[in-house]
What does this fold into?
Amino acid sequence: MDLFAGVAALHLTLPGLRGTVRAIRILLRAAMRDLSSLLKSISLVALAAGLLALFSPAARAASPMELNFGLFGPRYEGRIAPCESALGTITAQFREKEGNFWNSPLQITAYGQVRETAFRPWQSDNIPRRYCSAEAMLSDGKPRTVHYSIIEDGGFAGFGQGVEWCVVGLDRNWAYNPACRAARP
It folds into this structure.
């Protein structure tokens, strides 16, 4: 008899609750009440949005003043600096990227065989770009190819010329993979 009394003391539910089935029923009822209140609030929001759409004024065409005031299209001139002008920017950004993000002491020490690979390779309405390639000597003694583009109005907030570049074999975040192909025309 002592064995049965000890086993009864280990039961986790009180005798009045009739096991876990009743507790599950109580939880389901509470969840259904929450679901019904959620559905009511969603239907009220949908009703408000429908009324707003129903009573809002119809869209109308722009007046001549609206058409001519501040709506200027892009005026690309195609004046992009030569390939050599971006090398200083690439060197500084490469040093910052390797040092801050990859904890690497690698730096670009010299460039050679700088050449233009394409200028505005797509339609003339696109943003003008000059695509270039160069051989870079790194501080570890290995020469690597750098593919880059100089973009008109591609600088910060569209001011000045921007530079996008990729060093073959050191595209650690795979932004231009495979083998910097996305950095070329």
Remarks:
- Residues 12 and 18 are 11 Å apart (CA to CA).
- The longest strand covers residues 108-119.
